[in-house]
Structure formats: structure tokens, C-alpha cells
# Entry
Amino acid sequence: MKRLFSILAAIAVSLGPVHASVDEALSFALEAAQPYIKEGFTVREDYWGGDMAVKQPKAITHQLFKGNEYWFWIGTDEKGAKVSVHIYDSDGNLCEVESKQKAQMAMVRVIPKRTGTYYLIVEIEKSKAERTHWGMAYGFR
Amino acid sequence: MKTTTFLALASLCVSALAQDPPKQIDVTKLPKETRVVEDVIVPVPSEIFGVLDKLGKPNWVAVQRPLKKVAKPFGEPAQQALYLGTVIAEGFIAVEAGDAKEVKNIGNSVLSLSTELGVRKAVIARANAIINAADAGKWADVRRELDGALSEVKDALMLLKSADLAHLIALGGWIRGTEALCEVVARDYSRDGADLLHQPVLVEHFDSKLKNLKSRAKKHPLVPKAQKSLKEIRPLIGLADGAEISAKSVKEIGGIVAALVKEIQSK
# Structure
């Protein structure tokens, strides 16, 4: 699993279709982000992605700051696949204020009540593929 | 709560997460398996500066430590990397201060220091964009380009199999950013402002990266000094989310990181 999408993109030359798919997965995430960019969200240029089996969620630890508002967007290139993203605070409380799920993409909004550690849980809920590519981006304002 | 604890629990809750995520997860039930995407996402500086903008209008000019001229590399790569991190952080402060001349200086300094680290090609477009945006007074663009420069230098170093230096750049930026944040908060203390220092997961992250340095960077004298500083900071930043960070603690943290920045920037 690579942290930075740009690294994934760079090694895509050698791995071809695998990382190209992560690229496509990310394009769905960024498509989901478009309306929010117009609302003033700054999209971070680092991206996260890889591949996952169905119903094998992964967790991402994140430092969030009270005073900011965040959107996290996740996408997949697999047609008919369903992805999800949810966010919890350090006490394990679900803390998102809004979440949406569409074809091949999902998103969640959080307004942190306090500065600290948060956990994103990303998952492929449904997919025909054994391993499904995903890409995640986030924005803040 | 330990990260692994939560992650493990999350993997237990697959079925619940799939449809309707649970409102709360019981962290006392700990399965063995965890699946981590990575240890932690380190926020970009803009995330913190954005909050500070909302809290008031700090005297950034007083917080600035202008380079006055283009920074030249010195010391071993480990110090160069830490230094580059502090210079990029200084760029954010210069943006807050509206100091176009200094921002341009920093853009050129980023280029100079990146060249020595072998990643000039990766950062040249960013450095030029920083300079052009500063000339045009487009501060939001400068911020975005500084965020991007930090990422691209780190990415380029990763590709060169110099992950250690990439981590040191991030650490240098965090240290100088924390110093500036402490100074701003100490000048006009507010609980919300001090709360921004509550970053235990980042302290843990950087400490872990330092412990796991593999190259000769690990032997650089600044590394144990940074580890000592992180150890001293840890109890001061509020161990639990929501814990109050006092004005005294803010000053103490500021003193610790200021001393470290001074060492990083000393030949």
C-alpha cells in the first residue's frame, strides 16, 4: 500500500494496468470533489489508494483540527462496485455530519468538535472483482 | 486509545460498517488482526494556518524569521533535509505576514536546498510558481504551491529511495510550524488556539520515523536531539483529546521547538 498517489502514478510506468486502475479510481473520488471545490474547499494534492478485497476495511489515522471543515472522497474504477468511507473520533464515536454514497464513489463530511486523532474507515462493500482498486482524496476549508 | 486497538476493532465491525456504520465502537474488545493503510496522514500546513486565520489576526511579522538572502545548503543530508523543512514552514509564515519579498527568497531557497538533495527537477515548477504568485500577491496560491512543494520534494526523495530524508523534511517543517504556532498562541492565549497544538498522533508518528531511520541519517547528532524534544513535548500537548493545554505548556513547547530549530539552522 502506498501513501502518496503521486508515487503510485510514478511507478505506474512499470506496473501499468494495476496503477492505472488506481488512477481511474481516484478520478471518481475527484469527480465527487468537484462541487465542493466550488464551495471553497481546498483539495489536498496528496492522494491515497490501492486495492482491497470486499468487506476487508482499512483504517487511516488522521490528525484533524477544530475550526476546519473536511470532506473525504473515495472512488473505485470497478463498475457496479460499492465503496464506503466513515469517520470516528479517538473515543470510537462516529462523528461525521454528512455522508453520501453514489455509484463507484462515497463521501463523508466532518466538522471536528475538537482537535485530535480521527480514524477513517474505508471499505469495498460490494464488487465482482477479487481485489478492487480505490482512491481517496480530501479537502478542507 | 491506541491506533492498533481501534483498527483491529474496525475490522471486526465489517458487517455493521457495510450498511449502517455503528455510532460507537467499543474499544475494549480487541481482536488481533489489524489492517492499516499507513500509520498516519500528516496534515499540510495550510490546514493549521487556515484555522489560525479564523481565530484572529496574529502579528505574523513578529513571528517571522526572515532568511534575508537565499538559503544555501550546509551540513550533511539529514541536516539539509531538516533545514529545508524549516524553510518551507517559514514560507507559510511569510505568506501570513504578506511579505512578498521574503516569499520569493524562500522560493529560491527551496530550489537551492532541493538541488543539493538531488530533487531540483521535482520542485522547480513549484518554486517558480511560488515566486510568481508572490509577485502577484496571490497568497492563497502561494500557500497551495508551498503545500505542493513540500509534497513533491518528499515524493521525489521517496522515489530516490531516500525516505529517511523525506521524513526529516516533514519533521523540520512541523518543528518550525509548531514554534510559530506556539509564539502566536502565547502572544494572545486562547484555549481554541492552544488546542491546535494537540497533535499526539503526529508526535508519535515523527518519533516512530526517527526510531526507524535506516540510513546514515540516523547517526546525525540532530536525530537524538529531535527525539529528546519530542519526548519532552509529548506530555505537554494534552494526552487525551479535549484536554486543555495551558499557556504555560504552550510556552514550554515553544521553548523546546525553538531550541531545536536553532540547532537545525546552525552550521
The radius of gyration of chain A is 14 Å. Residues 17-37 of chain A form the longest helix (21 residues). Residues 1-18 of chain A have pLDDT under 50 and may be disordered. The first strand of chain A starts at residue 42 and ends at 43.
